[in-house]
UniProtKB/TrEMBL annotation:
SUPFAM superfamilies per the UniProt record, alphabetical: UDP-Glycosyltransferase/glycogen phosphorylase (SSF53756)
Entry EC no(s): 2.4.-.-
Protein name as it appears in the record: Glycosyltransferase
GO molecular function: glycosyltransferase activity
Listed InterPro entries: Glyco_trans_1 (IPR001296)
Domain Glycosyl transferase family: 206-376
Spans traversing the lipid bilayer: 80-101
Enzyme class name: transferase
Keywords: Glycosyltransferase, Membrane, Transferase, Transmembrane, Transmembrane helix
Coiled-coil stretches noted in the UniProt entry, renumbered to this chain: none
Amino acid sequence: MRDEPLTPADRAARAASGTILVSAQSHFGGIAEHAHYQAQELARRGFDVVMLCHRDHLLRPTAPLYRRIPGLRRSRRKGFLGRLVAVAAMAFNFWLLAWHMVRLQPRFVLLDAASEYFAPLWAWPHILLHATGRIYLANLHDPVRSRHFGPEWLHRWSLRLIYALLDGGLVHGPVPAEAGLPASLALGLAPLGPFEDTYSHPASPDLRQRFGIPATAPLVLSFGHVADRKNLDLLIEALADFPQVHLLVAGASIGSTQKQVGDYRAQAQRLGLADRVHFDDRFVADADIPSCFAAADLVALTYRSDFVSQSGVLQHAVAFQRPVLVSCGPGPLRATMESFALGELVEPDSVNAIADGLARMLAKPENRAAAFSAYAEASSWRANIDALLRLEEKVRDQRAMPAS
């Protein structure tokens, strides 16, 4: 169903409530989805929402209720030159955000994610804007900011800069102590909501046939970017104990520093599992997501112990009522599994733990409809935006307090 276009009276009413500027630096994937649905819900509440984004940011079937400024840039080149252009584009995007903040004077700016990457190149105008009263809020999808490149001193400097401009952040669950968030940063607890547009696409009935998976064979799905943090090597090794079970890895590799799909394909070949481990090694478009989950019997989220965030794949699994096999460190995903009976939670980084959890799920399938329903009710964009607006009020109250 498409949302109705705005009338001039609607736009006037929204302008009176103040503009909210959403910075959508990610153009695809879970973070981009999250920003889109937040903007939609804010617009439904009557706010004038403007999203600064890439030109190809989530070309969706649902008409946006918010305004878009498709001015962000990114590099499409490869190699060293491509990396330099990517850094320059990132800096340009944040300077462009600063310009639009000056131009629009928003009620607050909402960053789609709190990324500190190369902050010394772009943080300064935002720190100045923050000092003059602008409010910065962010989605802290991953509050534990590990160093991924460069020297440690640069990483720490970048973190200090991003936290110098942030007033508050939304988190999806308990924040691990190692996150080291400053005490001055106001926090709000907000759930992930459902990816509604995705579920409007019909599921194709021929996915199993396309990969040669028998209709009666149990099928485990690992969905999303192929990344080391997902422990796919351990999941594939555990599959050796289950001669009837098939695994579908649906997603593209994410970078040269990570194991590639070819590495996992070679591992399956060495273990004699090539006929039961299947790869759809591409970015899976929205229209194809329902087919993957409808064909699967369960979904594997076998993260490493250093994964302490939430997983957008869980939203897909719940929407299609597919139980999940989960491992992870302490954080929102673990808290969710401890609160809702959505599947099996096992210790991370262990082939035996994965195999034991899989054995339990296959031996005794449970009716988890009530748990899926309870989780879906607790995890909505309505609740997410309620938390965001409470966070804004909290920040305003803190700013109004006299300095001690």
